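Blinded run. Sample ID left blank on purpose so nobody reads anything into the name before looking at the predicted structure. Input follows.
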Amino acid sequence: MLREFAFSPDVFFPEAFGVKGANGEFIAAENHGHVALVVLWKGIERFGVIRDLADGNWGRTLENRREGLHIRSRELLKKLLRDGRIVKTVASGVSPPVAEMGWLLEALASHAADPEISQFFGTDDFCGPLKAADYQHLPKGISKIPFCSPFSGDGCSIKVDRNVAAYISTLRPLIKYSRSLMFIDPYLDLQSANYKDFLILLREIAAVNPGIDIELHRQIKPTQGEKLLSASEWKNRLHDAVAIDPVLKILKIKVFIWDEFHDRYLISNLMGISVPYGFDTTKKGDATRWSMLSPSDTDDVRQEFTEGDPQRRRKIQIT
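Blinded prediction complete.
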């Protein structure tokens, strides 16, 4: 559900935005840049990351030309870096790109090596004449961003088969780029048959992003057929299931036991997802629909399940 994008550095400068007069002359229009860059930020904040192409040369190019950036770009790039939404990728070319065509070709090579980039945004002058089919339909002019899905405000949900392979496939970009993951599920029990595949998901996380912080959250109230356990017993039960797997010892995992709750979520520092059936699996061929949360709803859920947060509305179980 997390989407990856690539951008030409040129779109972050004032001269990228404007209109053409009757005689074809380009007329700069600063307000066009404000609109496009604000929409860009709102979209990336909800569901995306930007590839720092060519082993970080994309970011260095912007930093070296910092004084000439659009005023909105400076604020935007600062937020993107702070939130971990600019992600370095290995260089695909021999030398760093120096023009928009070079950045597009680098994005295409990066896309081929590590799919998939959802869109490449360049200046209107550069992208306008391009034949989309020649470049895998990736390039689009920056002025189109307010009208492109999902930047245009479309909702985001996805149908997911209830098996671990589908979970891993859907979550791979989120696993790769997140700094933290909160698995919030009132019935999470790694020793029960329907959650045994959750350990496979944890192994994938260990392989792709071993330095990530992981939190497991469940309720103290037992489900039908479960034994009544104390909070410390539940913590031990969850930790024990992880401890016997040598691959998982590399992960930093915290366990939290709360009073009764019902909704299930996956909360990352990059986005939040409502997962109605949690991460248990079934062999019945069932599917579920995951829905992306807004940034404010994601923060609300995070606060609700944060120990010691003065605004929390849920009671943590200690004994």
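Unblinding after everyone has recorded impressions. Residues 60 and 179 are 23 Å apart (CA to CA).
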